[in-house]
Amino acid sequence: MIRTRTDGDVRVVTIDRPAARNALRPADLTDLREAFEAPETDGRPPVTYLRGAGEAFCAGADLDAVAALDDPEAFARRGQRVAAAIAESPSVVVCGVDGAARGGGVELAVAADVRVATPRATFGEPGVSLGLFGAWGGTVRLPRVMGEGEALDFALSGRVLDAEAALRTGLVSRVVDDPRSVADEIAAGAPDALAAIKRRVRDRRSGEAQERAEAAAFADLHDAHAAEIKQRRER
After folding, report:
1. Structural domains counted in the chain
2. Which domain of life is it from (predicted)?
3. Tens digits of per-residue pLDDT, 143-197?
4. 22: helix, strand or coil
5. Helices 104-111 and 138-146, packing angle to 10 deg
C-alpha cells in the first residue's frame, strides 16, 4: 500500500506494508510509480519525502511474488520504471531510510536525489545469495553513487552496510535522527532554484552541453530573482 499526503512544503510518500517490512508486490510498484508520475499542480510542494512505515524502509521485492513470476523480465522493467519515476520527478526527492533497506529498497533509495539514514539504518543487496541481482536500475545507479569499486564489492558480496559504512561509501549523505528534517531544510530553498539544480546535476549529456544549460538556467534564475538579490545586497 502506498500513501501520499502533503505536509507543509513537503509531499510525503509512504510505503505502508510494515508487516512485510514494506516488501513490494507488482501492484505496489504500480501505485508507487503513479505516486511519482501524478500530474504536477500549482500547489505541489517542491520536495517529496520517501519513507517506509514501521521498522524498515523497504525489503525490496516481495519474495512470494518473485517466486510466482511468469515474466521476470517484465517485473524487472516495472521496477525500473518506478526508479526512473523517482529519479525524473520534477520535485526534489529525499529518501529517509530508517531500518532495513534491502534489494529493491536500496535501488529505490539510490534513485532519489538525497539519501539520509538514521543510525539504525542498514543496507544490503542479498540477491546474489538467491542467484539474482538488483535489476531495478541498481547496476546502473549504484556505481554513480558509490563508485564502481564500492558498488561491485557491495553487490557481489551481499554484505550488509550499517549507517556509518553507508556514509563512508557515499550511499547516503547524512546520518541523522530525523531524516524528515533534511527534507524540510531543503524545502526552505526557492522552488525554481531547487528544480534547476536537480535538472543540471541529473543531466547526462556531454560536459559542454551541460555547462551551456547550466549557464542558461543560472541566467533564468537571476532574472527571476533580480529584485530579491538587489534588496539583499543593499542590506
Report:
1. 2
2. Archaea
3. 999 999 999 999 999 999 999 999 999 999 999 999 999 999 999 999 999 999 9
4. coil
5. 60
